[in-house]
Amino acid sequence: MTSNVTAAPVTSAPLAGTTVQLRWWTEVAIVLGFYAVYTSIRNLFGSAAVDPNAALENAEFVIRIERWFGLFQEERLQGWFLSWRHFLQFWNMFYGTFHFAVTAFVLIYLFRRHPQRYRWFRSALAITTGLALVGFSAFPLMPPRLLGDCGVYGGCAPGYGFVDSLIEFGGLWSFDSGAMQSVSNQYAAMPSLHCAWATWCAMALIPVIRNRSARAALALYPWLTLFAVVVTANHYWIDAVGGLAVLAAGLWGGARFVQWRDARGRAL
Fold first, then answer.
1. Domain residue ranges in the chain
2. In terms of Cα–Cα distance, which of 239, 42, 53 is closest to 146?
3. Cβ atoms of 185 and 43 closer than 8 Å
4. pLDDT exceeds cutoff 80 at 110
5. Degrees to nearest 5, angle at CA 130 with 261 and 33
6. What is the rounded distance in angstroms from the CA atom of residue 254 to the CA atom of residue 166?
7. Are 242 and 192 a contacting pair, CB within 8 Å?
8. Are 117 and 13 in contact, with CB atoms under 8 Å apart?
9. In 3D, which of 88, 68, 86 has the Cα closest to residue 77?
């Protein structure tokens, strides 16, 4: 099974006027292989190998920046909804599933309907995610939900009233187990890949979708994601800014990569 298209030159995308041939099994192997490598590298040492004091210091640095701009409102925002149990359960589900489900849908849709655009955005997503690894490694960041937590990986910092909504209200998954905490990297917060991937989804599909309702939903999706990561106390506002930064670099790098491959007559 292959996907073929003859693309017309478009100045806003790295399109070459040549036939693109993509094999779905090759693309699945590439995507799954890349994500497996990404996950392995991100979690190679896990939270157990990161000094919680360093992650807390970075969190306090981020909070100082947000306070300087008058933007440290995450705790207040979450506080407005703490009595809404089912509301927060929905956003726990949103946080844990949409990140993967919507991104996978966009990749499949582009592959089937817009193969040349798929090549650009697939490459951009890979570069964006790879750059995020650099951020996680260079700047381990304690998320809001762990600031007042006095467990092994928490900051036990006084003065913060954040609630870990997954533990308090439940969801499809949770970090509340010793094995999960030690294997996963809970300090992989800067940049926010949730926000980067959500914006990527909107940018990938809005130009090629005609249905107005679908376009409106796509335009709203990054903002809903930003709300989800903040209200569940998994991210600070500024993490989203970091996500947009690596996405911008990823889009630029993805375009250059596809142009480089096209110049050599290769479709990957």
1. 51-177+184-263
2. 53
3. yes
4. yes
5. 75
6. 35
7. yes
8. yes
9. 88
